[in-house]
Amino acid sequence: QEGSLSLMQMAKISSALYNYQLDKKLFYVAILTDPTTGGVTASFAMLGDIIIAEPNATIAFAGKRVIEQTLNTTVPEGSQTSEYLFEKGLFDPIVP
């Protein structure tokens, strides 16, 4: 999905998840599989109390080409993989 409707869905999902965590006093585990991209990455995928990823998963908000064209820079090879992002502390374990 694209456009304002999908943008609002991201906000609704994030708000519902926040209320779930606040009201129920429970934790939320997010499991990132290949690929996890776009609005999912920008919203509920990264809101987990525990965030788990599978090996060699592509995890990104935007694709490499879009980033390179928008920022006029080169995206390092492998920078959108679960292993690279784990090294940077973006999430918890990588689990097969």
From TrEMBL:
Gene, per the UniProt record? accD
Query: Recorded E.C. number(s)?
Result: 6.4.1.2
Task: List the record's Gene Ontology CC terms alphabetically.
Answer: acetyl-CoA carboxylase complex
Which biological processes are named by the entry's GO terms? fatty acid biosynthetic process; malonyl-CoA biosynthetic process
Mind telling me which Gene3D superfamilies this protein's record contains?
Answer: 2-enoyl-CoA Hydratase, Chain A, domain 1
PROSITE patterns registered for this protein in UniProt? COA_CT_NTER (PS50980)
What InterPro entries does the record point to? Acetyl_CoA_COase_Trfase_b_su, ClpP/crotonase-like_dom_sf, COA_CT_N
Q: Which domain of life is it from?
A: Eukaryota
* Assembly description: Acetyl-CoA carboxylase is a heterohexamer composed of biotin carboxyl carrier protein, biotin carboxylase and 2 subunits each of ACCase subunit alpha and ACCase plastid-coded subunit beta (accD).
Kindly indicate whether the keyword NADP belongs to this entry: no
Q: Tell me the lineage of the source organism.
A: Eukaryota, Viridiplantae, Streptophyta, Embryophyta, Tracheophyta
The entry's protein name is Acetyl-CoA carboxylase-D
Q: Which UniProt keywords apply?
A: Chloroplast, Ligase, Metal-binding, Plastid, Transferase, Zinc, Zinc-finger
Catalytic class of the enzyme: ligase
User: Which parts of the sequence belong to the CoA carboxyltransferase N-terminal domain?
Assistant: 1-96
Drop me one GO molecular function for this one. transferase activity
